[in-house]
Amino acid sequence: MGFDDALASPPPEGEGFETNWTVRPGDVDPNNRLRFDGIARYLQDVGSDNLDATSLGETDPFWIVRRTVIDVVVPVEFPDRVHMRRWCSSMSTRWSNMRVSIGSGKGARIETEGFWINISATTGMPTRISDTALELLARTTDQHRLRWKAWLTEAVPAESHTDVRFPLRATDIDSFNHVNNAAYWHAVEEFVVDHPHLVARSHRAVIEYLSPVLANEHVTIRNRYENGALTLWFVVEGSVRTVAKIAPRA
User: Fold this and answer.
1) Are 121 and 41 found together in one domain?
2) Residue 113 belongs to what domain range?
């Protein structure tokens, strides 16, 4: 798969994990659009709820995300109440692609996919998914040879006067001492303000976490707007830690 490829179709009805909740005003922009960071928090929270509702909360409780794909077909707008359905769309023995479909009675539709890696509680490294979890994940996919392949491989631009500092806050740091997944999307929203047409129609946003940003590190964002797409590189001491790209969809 790559940046322009379609996401996997839903499994049969009754499979996967489903939940609902109300859109909060703190997650929307001045036009009442559900922001990217709000979507990212929804994906984290529905993942946690999914773990708690199954045996995975005991057998495989720690996961980190390597890539998040967000396809906004029809945006969620406040006020609204969303329905979320989460399922495994492909897997291997240490990681899985988890699809989340977000919709509402008002016609909103957002399709997402996250590449999640199972983490050992003792070593902090990728570890084999338990047999119980593998059996559960396999209920919604027959793709069992998932491999990691980066989608965002454009070379980072040279340092320039257009680089932007991204100061970290104490509230951006999670229990692993990493910048929380949703916090990166705050920076994306800062740049979207200057390119509102990107979110005015159907669009795709992808973020790939190459290596974690830790508390107290100094982050600079290099950016390029080209061929209708916005790409951001999160750089620490000359090393690219994360890449994000937003582009319209046909």
Assistant:
1) yes
2) 17-140
